[in-house]
């Protein structure tokens, strides 16, 4: 393979952005472990006592959603999200960097817009006291706020990559 082709874009951004993305991913992993633990305990309880954990569906749905949001920024930081390289792998490194930079700007813009929308949604959910529909009636404004934070961090990570690509520093 020629050196001017783009198989490797260098190390992911570090510093505060890297630390925040890794922290969100860690918390996302913990959240998914909680969902798995609640599911497992609930199933075992159904086998032995015919009674699951009260509100297990509510807990698992919120924990799973928060978990998935937690990995978005880290995936973007590591450039591990779904990418289509079929078109750009044969391009010269600078051209492929410009193409990737453009799409990182698009991804960053979309995720920052989603963060703003979810932030407003979290405020509205908090103001009107909205709760889950189910046995526990849990408030879930905080889960929406975590999603907004995760989207914002994803947008920042994407824009950092975009700047690196567009400046040719990769």
Number of strands: 0
> Mind describing the biggest β-sheet?
none
Cα gyration radius (Å)? 20 Å
Unreliable parts: 1-7
Give the number of domains. Answer: 1
Series of secondary-structure elements, N-terminal to C-terminal: HHHH
Q: Report the structural category.
A: mainly alpha
Q: How far do the termini sit from each other?
A: 18 Å
Number of helices: 4
Q: Strand content of the residues, in percent?
A: under 5%
Mean pLDDT score: 88
Quick one: overall form?
Answer: elongated
Helix content: over 70%
Concise overview:
The longest helix has 36 residues, at 93-128. The chain is elongated and about 65 Å long.
Task: Give a written overview of the molecule.
It is a single chain. The protein has one domain. The protein has helices spanning 15-49, 56-77, 93-128, 141-167. Helix 2 packs parallel to helix 4 (141-167). By secondary structure, the protein is mostly helical. Helix content is 71%, strand content 0%. The chain is built from 4 helices and no strands. The longest helix has 36 residues, at 93-128.
